[in-house]
Specification:
By secondary structure, the protein is mostly beta strands. It has one helix spanning about 10-20; strands spanning about 25-30, 40, 50, 60-65, 70, 85, 95, 125, 130-135, 145-150, 155, 170, 180, 200, 225, 245-250, 265, 270, 285, 295, 305-310, 330. The strands form four sheets. It has a twelve-stranded parallel sheet with strand order 1-3-5-7-9-11-13-14-15-16-18-20, with no helix packed on it. Strands 17-19-21-22 form a four-stranded parallel sheet, with no helix packed on it. The protein has a three-stranded parallel sheet with strand order 2-4-6, with no helix packed on it. The protein is elongated, with a radius of gyration of 24 Å.
Length: about 325
């Protein structure tokens, strides 16, 4: 077996580079002092709170984080089930680890998310310095009632607020470009009536099973509504989709019995499997344009959909009546 000798000087340089990259000299990796206290004050000067530092600590009720902290890593306060009050610093940049941040093998800092997951937090105010809310950051915070999304946020990560069953309001101070997979899934008391203009992608299951979601429209700028995005949103009452939407994913609006769409925009190119299945409030739909893909089950079990107006000739798109077995199709339809 070959043997390799690493000079002490080289080893020292490698260690220094490692510490500098991960900010270990100012990273809180374990904090024993007052571990059983119900109030925790992170020391001034800490830049990064490491992974799972207080994971499962059931003593903490109040947490104060100094302005020096820029990063809070995955699971740092996960399962702190009595943690109800958190003061986040103005200089905070990231909540949760970012895969792109880790360039040394992933086994060193795996990205499991859940910074405050399953804690007892009731309210959170995020500072303008935060750019992303990453994976499961506040998932299963069943006492959380309100949250703000500052202008600086560009993405709400996957499952960021999933299963926050008492979350009733989200104050969008700006518009994230992406709402991630399951970002608000199963937030059963979330009663939003609007979303801010500037959102581009509503990812899969983003609002699925949000049974009190009461949106009547989606903002201009949305181009993609992924699979199951609004599935089982039984109070969703959209009357239109914005021009610019190009793709509607499979089961995107499945079982939305109050959906009140009467037309679909010209920009749509793809309506995937069962996109509008079980939308029993649909009565008449007019296509403004001709999509390149229209699933044969797009309107499955839309039992009250009796009229579909389309601008294309019969036979242009396969699968008619696309699941709407009670519908009459008016081909070559021109709005008067």
């Amino acid at each position: 077996m070959a043997e390799y000798i690493i000079q002490e000087e080289t080893l020292t340089k490698l260690a220094d580079a490692f510490r500098k990259h991960f900010e270990l000299e100012s990273c809180l990796v374990r904090y024993i002092k007052n571990y059983s206290s119900d109030e925790i004050y992170i020391p001034e000067g800490v830049v990064r709170i490491g992974r799972a530092v207080y994971y499962g600590n059931t003593y903490i009720k109040t947490l104060k984080i100094p302005d020096s902290v820029k990063y809070i890593d995955d699971n740092a306060f996960c399962n702190c089930r009595n943690l109800a009050s958190v003061s986040l610093p103005n200089g905070l940049i990231r909540i949760g680890e970012d895969d792109d941040f880790v360039t040394i093998p992933d086994c060193i800092f795996s990205s499991n998310g859940g910074v405050f997951s399953s804690s007892a937090i009731e309210s959170v105010y995020l500072p303008d310095s935060v750019c992303e809310i990453l994976y499961k950051a506040f998932s299963y915070c069943t006492n959380l009632r309100n949250i703000n999304i500052p202008k600086s946020i560009t993405k709400i990560g996957n499952q960021a607020f999933s299963y926050c069953t008492n979350l009733t309001s989200v104050d969008f101070e700006g518009a994230p470009k992406i709402i991630g997979n399951m970002a608000f899934s199963n937030c059963t008391n979330l009663a939003l009536t609007s979303l801010p203009e500037g959102i581009i992608t509503i990812s899969g299951n983003a609002f699925s099973d949000c049974t009190n979601l009461a949106l009547t429209s989606l903002p201009k700028g949305v181009t993609t509504i992924d699979g199951y995005a609004f599935s089982n949103c039984t109070n969703l009452a959209l009357t239109s989709l914005p021009e610019g939407v190009t793709s509607i994913g499979r089961y995107a609006f499945n079982n939305c019995p109050n959906l009140a769409l009467t037309s679909l925009p010209e920009s749509i190119t793809a309506i995937n499997d069962y996109a509008f299945s079980n939308c029993t409030n649909l009565v008449s739909i007019t296509f403004k344009g001709t999509p390149t893909r229209l699933s044969s089950g797009a309107f499955e079990n839309c039992v009250n959909l009796t009229t579909i107006n389309v601008p294309w000739a019969e036979g242009t798109l396969w699968g008619a009546p696309w699941g709407a077995t009670n519908a009459t199709i008016n081909y070559n339809y021109v709005e008067g």
